[in-house]
Design goal:
The protein is mostly helical. It has helices at about 1-10, 15-30, 35-45, 55-65, 75-90, 90-100. α1 packs across α2 (about 15-30) and α4 crosses α5 (about 75-90).
């Protein structure tokens, strides 16, 4: 990897710097505590232990600051629906659905 980076640095250092700036900006967005990427990652990690229960997962996400407390019942239901969609995307859930 370092060999490739050094070759690119010799070829076009300005473009390599621009590339790194773009990568680190994207990384900052991903690392944001309330990013979609982080929410999905945490759901992937905890869903089996929480029995894929959207309410228990929501409580965990709120405790960790990944999702905010809902102000209305409508917002609460929307958060649960979002979590259910994320759970449905999990590989083990998709495989289980296909085998039914």
């Amino acid at each position: 990897m370092l060999n490739l980076l050094s070759t690119e640095w010799l070829r076009d250092p300005k473009e390599l710097r621009r590339f790194f700036v773009a990568v680190f900006r994207a990384w900052q967005k991903i690392d944001d505590p309330q990013s979609v990427w982080r929410r999905r990652l945490v759901i992937d990690q905890i869903a089996p232990a929480k029995g894929h229960d959207s309410k228990r997962i929501l409580e965990h996400l709120q405790r960790k600051g990944i999702m905010t407390e809902a102000q209305t019942e409508e917002q609460h239901e929307a958060q649960l629906a979002t979590i259910r969609q994320d759970i449905a995307r999990l590989p083990e859930v998709s495989i289980a659905r296909e085998t039914l």
